[in-house]
Structure formats: structure tokens, C-alpha cells
Write a structure and sequence with these properties.
Elements lengths: L4 H22 L15 H13 L15 H18 L27 H32 L13 H13 L4 H18 L2 H22 L6
Helix pairs in contact: 1-2, 1-4, 2-4, 3-6, 3-7, 4-5, 4-7, 5-6, 6-7
């Protein structure tokens, strides 16, 4: 399969993120590598964030002229908060596929919150991940399933089959499968309805940002 440069620029940050996730999953929890392995999450900011920054000008859907208007922003924020509310309630055992591969508990030996670790995790989850994932799942995969030469496809012309299939694959990448379906459909429908990827990015960022604040306040670390 020959992938275009546009496809690779949307795939490679996602591949890097998944590779770092796998690395964190195999890292020992007891400083077996000589350092606190939780800080591996900071590599997302450097590696994935750096890739997005380096290729920013080539992501046409993120250009200023494609920014959403006030109404679309408000809708994206509302959808993001609704997905957050759904996510923290759709966690019954039958709604889960396995367990998270990399736990992240930002507390010290005395049980006190480790704020530098929290800041790194929250920044990655609320800023880097929404950009990286929406570029991969929605901008690339959803449109690619509709038309392999996806670059010129208006997302508003994406059919139900491509929307549902890309959401199904999105679900497989998340332990909370039902919550992932809700989130994936919400972000995809926002993108398809508005034709602007920023609406999905904003909604995703709001979900992850709100989830991070809630997790820290409730110490429900299993959601991180």
C-alpha cells in the first residue's frame, strides 16, 4: 500500500504515541531502569508534540482559515463535556476490554500529589493527544475509508460506513469500549457536520482536560 505524504504525516505521530505507550507498559514500576518510569510520559510532549509542530504547516485543516466560529466552538465544548460525563459513568466491568497497559499514579511515597508529573500528564492528554488522535482517526482514517485519496475529500461527504468503521477501530484502542464508541461517534459527527477538524479537536481536548481535573480531584487513577 502506497501512502501519500499527507497520510504519513497523520499516521507517524500516532505510531510514535503508541510505541511510547508500549514502552511505558513494559517499564518496571520500581525504578528498575534507574529512573522513575512515569516520566516516560514526558516523551509524548517532546516526540509527538515535536512531530506535530514540525509538520504543522502541512496540516491544512488546522490552518487559521479553517478555525470554527463561536457557535461551533460552543457546540464543541458542550459535546466535550457530555463525552466526559459519559466516560466516567461507562466503566462497568462488561464495558471494558482488558486493562490499561500503562497505569499512571502521580503520587509520591507518602501519597502526596506529584504536581510536576500531573502537569506533564495533563498537558499531554489535553493538548497533544487531541491533535494527534483527531489527525489520525478522523482527518486520515475516517476519510481514507471513504476515499483512499483522502486529502481532497470534504469530511461532510463522508458516509456512514466510513464513520462507523473508523469509530470501531477507535474503540479497539481503548479499554473502555462503550465510552470510546460514544466519544468516537461524537467527535466524528462534529467533524462531519461542520467540515472543520478543529471542532473535533476542541471537543476531544475538553473531554480529556475535564477528565484529568476530575481524576486528580477524585484520585480515580484507573481513568488515566
Amino acid at each position: 500500500m502506497n501512502l501519500s505524504r499527507a497520510a504519513l504525516l497523520r499516521i507517524l505521530p500516532f505510531v510514535a504515541f503508541m510505541a511510547l505507550l508500549a514502552l511505558r507498559g513494559i517499564a518496571p514500576a520500581d525504578r528498575g531502569w534507574g529512573f522513575d518510569a512515569r516520566w516516560l510520559y514526558a516523551l509524548n510532549l517532546v516526540v509527538v508534540g515535536g512531530m506535530l509542530a514540525a509538520w504543522w504547516r502541512e496540516y491544512g485543516e488546522l490552518a487559521r482559515q479553517n478555525a470554527p466560529d463561536a457557535r461551533e466552538c460552543a457546540l464543541a465544548v458542550a459535546v466535550g463535556l457530555a463525552v466526559f460525563a459519559a466516560w466516567i459513568h461507562l466503566d462497568a466491568p462488561w464495558m471494558q476490554i482488558g486493562q490499561p497497559t500503562a497505569s499512571f499514579v502521580p503520587v509520591d511515597a507518602q501519597g502526596r500529589l506529584d504536581w510536576p508529573l500531573i502537569a506533564v500528564r495533563w498537558t499531554g492528554a489535553a493538548l497533544v493527544v487531541p491533535l494527534m488522535e483527531e489527525l489520525f482517526w478522523r482527518s486520515f482514517l475516517m476519510r481514507w475509508m471513504q476515499a483512499p485519496v483522502f486529502e481532497g475529500l470534504d469530511p461532510r461527504r463522508t458516509g456512514a460506513k466510513a464513520l462507523l468503521l473508523s469509530t470501531f477501530v477507535f474503540m479497539l484502542a481503548h479499554p473502555l469500549w462503550l465510552a470510546a464508541i460514544v466519544a468516537g461517534l461524537a467527535y466524528a459527527l462534529l467533524y462531519r457536520a461542520s467540515g472543520r477538524l478543529w471542532t473535533a479537536v476542541i471537543a476531544h481536548a475538553v473531554t480529556n482536560g475535564a477528565l484529568g481535573i476530575w481524576v486528580v480531584n477524585t484520585r480515580q487513577w484507573q481513568f488515566w
